[in-house]
Design brief:
Helix content is about 45%, strand content about 20%. It is globular, with a radius of gyration of 20 Å. By secondary structure, it is α+β, with helices and mostly antiparallel strands. Strands 4-5-6-7 form a four-stranded antiparallel sheet. A two-stranded antiparallel ribbon has the order 1-2. The two termini are about 35 Å apart.
């Protein structure tokens, strides 16, 4: 069983667990480091994404193809999920482990008539390593459509990431500009909370996780200071101009340092 070793890494631990079923020994942080995840960002559906939020075949194949695997994804309707899974050897999908906690699990086959799932979790978590669900129980834990991912063995293929990193730099520059614009006007508590995942998370949560992963403590510390300021602003629960609450100079300095780091890896 491979466990999560950094924040929100359940899908990366899931890839490690899938690969272990094929005899490949790796872990979430190895995958993240070898694919250059700390230097990657994207913008999708109105949301800035970085670190463990970059999920799916497009991203995982950066690690998988060089070691001779590739990922295939299929969106499956809820009512077809059980039948679809029964025909697979192994797969990864997202389920609600609790009512509000949705994360990636790895399907490993049927056991005593139930669907057996590896629970990609922190080692110290008191959640079970393995989850067993009847078909009805499983369907109560998924959305109306489910993305199911499987791995296939293939020839090893080198992957070039220079263009992806260059795109990521453009995305980070855009993110910094959008944060500055957002912070320059008074925002309601609802607007501020709504922006936490779409705008701030990529740099002030997942960005910090990635910087810590590669030991960039100075840049990370700058962002942690701004993160603390943002959390204090959220707690005030009143209309605010965030550029009067956050050290924008420190944030811009951290972003500039981060971009310089990314250029070295482009």
């Amino acid at each position: 069983m491979k466990y999560m070793t950094f924040n929100s890494s359940c899908s990366y631990a899931g890839i490690a667990n899938l690969l272990s079923l094929y005899g490949v020994d790796t872990e979430d942080r190895t995958i993240a480091l070898e694919m250059g995840l700390p230097f990657l960002l994207d913008y999708e559906d109105g949301c800035y994404l970085s670190g463990p939020m970059l999920q799916g075949a497009k991203w995982f194949d950066l690690y998988l193809k060089p070691i001779g695997y590739t990922m295939t994804e299929k969106e499956v309707r809820k009512e077809q999920l059980c039948e679809y899974l029964r025909d697979l050897r192994y797969a990864m999908l997202g389920i609600y482990v609790t009512e509000r906690n949705k994360h990636a699990v790895v399907y490993t086959g049927m056991r005593d008539g139930k669907f057996c799932m590896l629970n990609n979790k922190w080692e110290q978590s008191d959640e079970p390593d393995t989850l067993l669900f009847s078909g009805q129980e499983l369907l109560q834990r998924v959305d109306e459509s489910v993305m199911v991912a499987v791995l296939s063995k293939t020839a090893c293929e080198a992957v070039k990431t220079e263009d992806i990193v260059k795109h990521s730099i453009v995305v980070l520059q855009s993110l910094a500009k959008e944060i500055a614009g957002f912070c320059s006007q008074e925002r309601s508590p609802m607007d501020i909370r709504a922006s936490m995942d779409t705008l701030f998370r990529a740099i002030l949560l997942d960005g910090i996780t990635m910087l810590d992963l590669i030991g960039e403590a100075q840049i990370s510390q700058k962002l942690k200071i701004v993160q603390g300021q943002l959390m204090n602003a959220v707690k005030e629960n009143k209309p605010l101009r965030l550029d009067q609450c956050l050290d924008m100079g420190l944030l811009n300095s951290a972003v500039a340092d981060y971009i310089s780091l990314m250029r070295v890896h482009a």
